[in-house]
Structures are given as structure tokens and as C-alpha cells.
Amino acid sequence: MTEERLLALQEVSFAYEGEGGQKETVLNRINLDIHKGAFVSVLGHNGSGKSTLAKLMNALLLPKEGTVLVTGIDTRDGELIWEVRRHVGMVFQNPDNQIVGATVEDDVAFGLENMGTDPAEMRTRIRESLQAVGMEAHLYDQPHRLSGGQKQRVAIAGIMAMRPSVLILDEATAMLDPMGRREVLNLARRLNREEGITVVNITHFPEEAVFSDRVIVMRAGQVEWDGTAAEVFADPDRLQALGLDVPFAVRVRHALAAEGVSLPFILHQEELVEHLCKLLLKR
Amino acid sequence: MQITFEEVSHVYGVGTPFERLALQDVSINIPSGSFVGIIGQTGSGKSTLIQHVNGLLQPTKGTIRLGDVTVTPTRKLPHESRRNIGLVFQYPEHQLFEETVAKDVAFGPLNFDMPPEMAELRVREALEIVGLDYQEMKDRSPFLLSGGQMRRVAIAGVLAMQPKVLILDEPTAGLDPAGRKAILEAIYRIHREQSLTTLLVTHSMEEAARYADRLIVMAGGKVMLEGKPDEVFAQADTLRELALDVPETVSLISQLNRKLPEEQRLPSSVYREEELISHLLARISDRGER
């Protein structure tokens, strides 16, 4: 069914104006479909076009060529731009640049107020979305007193309150400490599993991509690779040549296999432990 | 330059309702030439600690010795000593301000009254160290560079002062893997070549394991653990209580050791990835599996 296709990019190109006025192409004829309920990770080094891709998905940027469809709506349709943004919520890298309210409650209310939501309905949605991100105890707290991970969770609550279809994390964990990073990633995984939210996670951390259904690798404005985590991480040399890292377990397995140790492909550390034990204990 | 803290405490906002004890009785000894990883959660006191090293903050209590200079609650770090201690803040690219890369990097040396020709030489060297081409970069606006390039320019600005102590507050935050590696390798190289004493604040146990020869683990304004990396990583339980990770290498070894008979256990002092792999290879080939 076509409505299962939540996001569709068709022959999309985008260019910024460079230093001397020349055009710098950031995305070059991208074709991509993202289906409802998917958890997609997008990897790529700085300047590969990842963030531009994300911004095209919720009409923060409009394609210079080609078409971006969000639940069938063309993002260039100015009349429906708010509908597009309600469907596709985005969390950015810096937790301090996206908080607008004086309290957590105000902050989550911001989008709803903009939509003119009925006050009673608004209170219900604020409570529900803060519960969903595990921040209900902080309703009246000042956002600047929260940790980075908590701020990002409040930003996600603000998006959840709009009942979106897609949550885009644009390097939302890059500025967090390991605990904050885990908080945000676990939340995104739970919202995907339990609430059916489609997640697009743009990240530099390969460990975050291990749990996705699909990994898209960007390079110089094009999709270099599109497959399952197992498929994409099966070739660490190719990823490392692109300046990208692979998960630790993949790296160790690859280094051992290169020296002739027979090991199947491994994505998770538990599998690595199991296989290594077999090898070390075998007589 | 040897750095010692003796019972150093720091209180922010003394006498105000916001009074907060940020460092509590910190005693550390950093031998000259060390590469020290400073680890801890956000709010653990790491930034307060390093700001004492370059004299931005003065202790409320205790004594700090930097080489032969002593800093106490009543005695400041002298101005001329400050140039010996280079501090690269978090997101240093936010502090770029000049119209060209060369002017930005030259700001520090010129500010300390260095003759312009000499400053230019320093700028050239500093940009080379961080892997940027002087001719190509010098006249460009720092604001039109990529994030990784901006960060390198900012670090070059500190290196141009030729400090003896280099302090970096999460220099790789927000960069992609290739950018992280390039910056850390450059720092490590200059650390060795110029025999610097380097303090690296990081959230990444992997970075700490790869580069540091000493670690300081902070929590709640106190030093919780201090020592060589293998000594610190051996305290996995304490690290976990502090919501910190051990490096993936250490966690793999401890998981393996839990399943292996005692005589076959891997040495828990291993924490570098290459070392782990060669250990595993040696064990596996002993068993004829290769």
C-alpha cells in the first residue's frame, strides 16, 4: 500500500551558495523511501549531506530539484507546510539551542499553542508526552537546570505532543555524555517499538546504528550504501575508507579474521564473546 | 611542567544563595610530560579543575604548584606564566572571531607582544601541526570552514602560544570519527615532540585508553580514582557506580574471563585494542585454530 510509504525523496538535489557565490552541491539526485515504523540510521562524515537530507524531510529546506513527499504531501506546498512539520519532528545537536519555554511544561506546550490546541487537550498531551520520555516529574522545572540528556528528552516530548509520524534525530546525541546518549537512544528505540514512531537517527556513532532496521551511508551527497546493519558493517574497510567507524565487535572480529581466524560475521559484543570462548576453549 | 594540587577546594558564589562546592579537597600529582585523561560525568568538577590549572579560577582553599610557581587563595597565577598553559575550551570554534584564519591564530602571540614576523612563523607551524595547509587557509574566513576545520583553527590558536601545558576540554565533541582521530593524533604527536604535559578532558573511555598514560576520575567535585589506565580500569565496579563506562576492550576481557577457566584468563591489564587483538591471536594460534 502506498500510504505505508511515509517519506519519499525522488531525484532530490540541493545546493548551497559557496564562499565566492559558486554553487556547492550537497545532495545529488537522491532517491529514498522510508516506510512506516522503520528505525533508520544515517551515517556519513561531516559534509556528506546527512543533515541537509534531514532538513529536507521536514521542509526546513526545500529541494532545488526533485520532490520530497511526506505522507504524500509535497513539501513545496506552502499551504501544507505546518502539516508536514507536525508529521516530521526534528531534534538537533545542541540541547541549549532548542529550548524555548521557561519551564518544561511551557516548552512542551510551545508547538501545541502554535497549533491552537484546546487547553484541556493540551494539558493531557503534555502529561502524556512527558510520561513517554520519562520526564513527568520535571513539569515545573526550569529547562536550563536539566542535564543535556534530559533537555533532549524534553525536546522529544515537545515533538511527541504533536503526535508526529516521524522523529528525526539530527546528531541529537553528539553533545551528550555516555549516560545522556544512552537515555536518548533508548527512548527513541522505545517510541519506535511501542508507539510505532518512525525514527530517522543521523549519527556518527556506529554503535547506535547496530540496533536499526536499516542503515543508510551517505557520501558526497549521494547514498553510498543502503542495507541492514549486518550488510553495511560487513565491510569495515569500505566504511573506514569513507572516514567512518564500525562497532567494536565488528572491528575485533575483522582484525582476527584478517589473520586467518575463522569467525562468522558478528555485530554484537555478546556474539563475539560466545564465539571467542568457543575458540579459546576448543581442544 | 609538573602540576600538583594539595587539598584544593573551590566554592562558587561564596556568600550568595547559589554557593556551591565544586571541588573538594582535591590532591593530585601530575608528573611533567604526562598525558592525563580526566573523566567524569557532566557536573563532576572536571571543568573547574582544569580552570585552576590555567589560572582562570583561584582555589578557595589549598595550594597549586605549576612548575616552580605557587598559586594559593591569595596568590594569583602571574600573567607571564599564563602563556605557558594553553587551554582549549569546549567548542573552541565558538571563540573564533577574526576575519581570516591567519589573524585568528596570530591573536594570542601578538597579544603577548611577539613581533609580527615571528608570530607569522608560529601561525604557520601551528596550522601545520593541526593538519591545515597555511597557504590554502591563511586568508580564508574561519566562519566559512567546516566544523572540524574550525575546531583545528581554534586549537592552532592555542598551539601558536607554544604552551608547556596543553589542556583540552572535550576537543572531539560533535566531530565525525575521521575528524576525531585526526585531531587526537595531532595532539598526541605534538605532546610527544614538544614534551608537553597534556590534560585531556573526555567522555570517551576509548580515547582515554588510547592516548593517556594517567587517568583521573572525578565525581561530585572529588577525585574518585587516579592512576595508570590499567589500575583505573580494574576498578570496573566503581566506574559503573559513577555511571561511567569501562572501555569496550576491558568489558570484552572481563566477559571472556567470566567464562574461561582460571588458567586461561586474559590479563586484565590489557586495555588497548591492538594489544587485545594480539593477545587473542596468540591464544588462538596456541590452540592451533589458525
From TrEMBL, chain A:
Its membrane topology = Peripheral membrane protein
- Which CDD domains does the UniProt record give? ABC_cobalt_CbiO_domain1
In alphabetical order, the GO MF annotations are: ATP binding; ATP hydrolysis activity; ATPase-coupled transmembrane transporter activity; cobalt ion transmembrane transporter activity
Primary place of residence?
membrane
Q: Name the PROSITE patterns on file.
A: ABC_TRANSPORTER_1, ABC_TRANSPORTER_2
Q: Which domain of life is it from?
A: Bacteria
Q: Does the keyword Mitochondrion apply?
A: no
Q: Where is the ABC transporter domain?
A: 7-245
Q: Is Phosphoprotein tagged as a keyword?
A: no
Compartment annotation: Cell membrane
Give the stretches traversing the membrane: none
Keywords assigned: ATP-binding, Cell membrane, Membrane, Nucleotide-binding, Translocase, Transport
What's in the GO CC field?
Answer: ATP-binding cassette (ABC) transporter complex
Tell me one Pfam family matched here: ABC_tran
| Family membership | Belongs to the ABC transporter superfamily.
Designated name of the protein = ABC transporter ATP-binding protein
Tell me the organism. Brevibacillus borstelensis AK1
**Organism lineage string:** Bacteria, Bacillati, Bacillota, Bacilli, Bacillales
